[in-house]
TrEMBL record:
Pfam families: Amino_oxidase. Residues 16-273 form the Amine oxidase domain. GO terms for molecular function: oxidoreductase activity. This is Amine oxidase domain-containing protein. InterPro entries: Amino_oxidase, FAD/NAD-bd_sf.
Length: 515
C-alpha cells in the first residue's frame, strides 16, 4: 500500500473540483492532488456519444457566466473563436397546441382568451393582496400565488414545476428563487395583451455559447488538460473508498492512502458522510432531498423540419408527454450528430412501427434531447420510458409518426437535481459547518446542495472560493450569498492577475486566520 501526503486533497473532477484544482495550481503554494473515479473528467457536466455518433450532455447545459475568472479559464481551455458557437436563446412553452414564448408568465397575450382572463384575474388578485402582506412566503407555492396568482399557478407553474422537481411546490422553499424564476410585471402583461405583443429574452441565459466539438464535456476535458498531470488521479485508482476524517486520510480504489491537511470534497454530501462512516452526519443528511434525472436522446434522419427551426430548448407543463424539457441538441453544433454522409439504418419509425427498408442510408440528421424527473413522489417506468417519450414527441408535434429514428439514448442519473426543500437550510446550516470543523469543505452542485448556485459557472467558483477560504480565509460569496453573486458581474479574481495575493503559508501547510 502506497502513501501520499498533500496539503489540499480535492475529491471529484467535475466543475467544482476542477475549479479548486485550477486555483491551487494558479496560486502555486500548497501541495495538492485531485482524484476522481471516472477516467474522463466532467462529472455532471460530461457528454456521452452513442454508437451511431450522436452526442448528448448530462441534461440541458449551456455556458453563461457571472464571473470573469470562470471566463478566463474557459477561454484558456478553448481559446479560438472556432471552438465555439454563439446562440440567442429561443425558448417556448408548449401549451394547448401553442408555442408560447418563454417566460410563460410574461406572455399571457399568447394564450387562448379564456386562459388570458383566468391568468389576469389571478395576477390582479395577487397584486392587490401583495399590498397587505409583510411576511415572507412559507413555501414556493405561496410565492407563486403571491406573485402570479391562482391562474398562472394552475395553468403553468404548479404542473411544470412538479414535472421538473418531482415534488409538489408546497414541499419546496422560496428562498432559492432569485434569478431562477421571472416575476411578472402586471403593467407590461396588460400592455402586451392589449397590443397583442410578446416579451422575451429574460434571464441570465438569454445568450449563450456552446462548444463546437465534443459537447459540454469537452470544456472540462480541456480544463483538466491544463492541470499538472502528476497531480491528477482519474479512474479506478482515483476512486474514494473511505474518508477517515479523524486521521485526515483517504483510501483510494487501488489501495493507496492519501493523507491531507484540508479536504475539498465535491462528491454528493450524502455519499461523503457514508464514506466517512459518521452516523451522526448520515442521519443529518437524510433530511436532504433530490430528484433523479433521466436523459433521453433521439436521433432522426432527415432535414430539421421548419416547425422546429432554430429553437433551443422547450418546456412542457402538460401531461401529454413525460418530459419537462426538450433541447434541440443538433441546433447547438453541427458536430453534435453524424455528418450527412454517414450511413445509418433506421431502427424504427416514430410511431413504433418497423421500417420497410432496414439498409443503412445517408443523412442528414438532427437530434432531440429530453429530460424526465423521478422521485418517490413521481415514479417512472424505466421499461417504457423511451417509448413514452417518443410518443410524447409526436403528441407535442416535435416528431411526425413516420419520422425515421436512427439512434436512441437513455441514461439515468440518480442525483439529478438537489431539491430546495423546506428542510434544506436546517440541514445545511448544521451539516456543512460540522464537516468544516473536521477540515472538510463539501462544495458543488450536490456537495453544498444549493441549486441556486448549481450552474457550471457557480459550481466552478464554489471550488475556487473554497480554496481561497482554506488558504486565506476569504469569504465564500457564491456559497453564502447567492443573490449577491447572481446580480452582479464578479470581476475580483482573474486567472493571470492577483493570484499571489492568496499565497499565504506556514511551513508549506495552508492556514486561515483564526483557524
Amino acid at each position: 500500500m502506497s502513501h501520499n501526503h498533500v496539503d489540499v486533497l480535492v475529491i471529484g473532477a467535475g466543475p467544482t473540483g476542477l475549479g479548486a484544482a485550477k486555483r491551487l495550481q494558479q496560486i502555486d503554494g500548497p501541495s495538492w492532488m485531485i482524484v476522481d473515479r471516472n477516467d474522463v473528467p466532467g462529472g455532471l457536466a460530461s457528454t456521452d456519444v452513442t454508437p451511431e455518433g450522436f452526442l448528448y450532455d448530462v441534461g440541458g447545459h449551456v455556458i453563461f457566466s457571472h464571473y470573469k475568472y470562470f471566463d478566463d479559464v474557459i477561454d484558456e481551455a478553448l481559446p479560438n473563436e472556432s471552438d465555439w458557437y454563439h446562440h440567442q436563446r429561443i425558448s417556448y412553452v408548449r401549451y394547448k397546441g401553442l408555442w408560447v414564448p418563454y417566460p410563460f408568465q410574461n406572455n399571457i397575450s399568447m394564450l387562448p382568451k379564456e386562459d388570458q382572463v383566468k391568468a389576469m384575474d389571478g395576477l390582479i388578485d395577487a397584486s392587490l393582496a401583495a399590498t397587505q402582506v409583510r411576511d415572507k412566503p412559507k413555501d414556493f407555492d405561496e410565492h407563486i400565488m403571491r406573485t402570479m396568482g391562482s391562474g398562472i399557478a394552475d395553468i403553468f407553474m404548479r404542473p411544470y414545476n412538479y414535472k421538473v422537481w418531482a415534488v409538489p411546490t408546497t414541499k419546496m422553499q422560496a428562498a432559492w428563487l432569485g434569478e431562477r424564476v421571472a416575476t411578472p410585471n402586471l403593467k407590461l402583461i396588460t400592455k402586451n395583451i392589449i397590443l397583442n405583443k410578446t416579451a422575451g429574452n429574460w434571464g441570465p441565459n438569454a445568450t449563450f455559447r456552446f462548444p463546437a466539438e465534443g459537447g459540454t464535456g469537452n470544456i472540462w476535458i480541456k480544463v483538466a488538460e491544463t492541470l499538472q498531470k502528476d497531480k491528477t488521479r482519474f479512474g479506478k485508482h482515483g476512486e474514494v473508498q473511505l474518508v477517515d476524517a479523524e486521521n485526515k486520510r483517504v483510501l483510494l480504489g487501488d489501495g493507496t492512502t492519501v493523507n491531507y491537511a484540508k479536504l475539498v470534497s465535491t462528491m454528493s454530501v450524502d455519499y461523503l458522510v457514508e464514506a466517512m462512516k459518521d452516523e451522526e452526519l448520515q442521519d443529518l443528511s437524510k433530511g436532504l432531498f433530490y430528484s433523479t434525472t433521466h436523459v433521453i436522446g433521439v436521433g432522426i434522419r432527415g432535414e430539421r423540419p421548419e416547425r422546429i427551426g432554430d429553437k433551443c430548448w422547450l418546456y412542457f407543463p402538460e401531461d401529454n408527454c413525460p418530459f419537462y424539457r426538450s433541447t434541440i441538441f443538433s441546433n447547438y453544433s453541427p458536430n453534435n450528430q453524424p455528418k450527412a454522409s454517414v450511413k445509418l439504418a433506421t431502427q424504427q419509425l416514430a410511431d413504433g412501427s418497423k421500417p420497410t427498408d432496414t439498409s443503412a442510408k445517408e443523412g442528414p440528421y438532427w437530434s432531440i434531447m429530453l429530460e424526465v424527473s423521478e422521485s418517490s413522489m413521481k415514479p417512472v417506468d424505466q421499461k417504457t420510458l423511451l417509448a413514452d417519450c417518443i410518443q410524447g414527441l409526436i403528441n407535442t408535434e416535435q416528431l411526425k409518426p413516420t419520422d425515421e429514428i436512427v439512434s436512441t439514448y437513455h441514461r439515468r442519473f440518480d442525483h439529478g437535481y438537489p431539491t430546495p426543500s423546506l428542510e434544506r437550510e436546517g440541514v445545511l446550516t448544521q451539516l456543512l459547518p460540522k464537516l468544516k470543523e473536521q477540515g472538510i469543505w463539501s462544495r458543488g452542485r450536490f456537495g453544498s446542495w444549493r441549486y441556486e448556485v448549481g450552474n457550471q459557472d457557480h459550481s466552478f467558483m464554489l471550488g475556487v472560493e473554497a480554496v481561497d477560504n482554506i488558504i486565506n480565509g476569504a469569504v465564500e460569496l457564491t456559497l453564502n450569498y447567492p443573490d449577491f453573486v447572481n446580480t452582479r458581474q464578479n470581476t475580483e479574481r482573474r486567472l493571470v492577475d492577483g493570484a499571489q495575493a492568496f499565497k499565504k503559508q506556514s511551513n508549506g501547510i495552508p492556514v486561515r486566520p483564526n483557524a
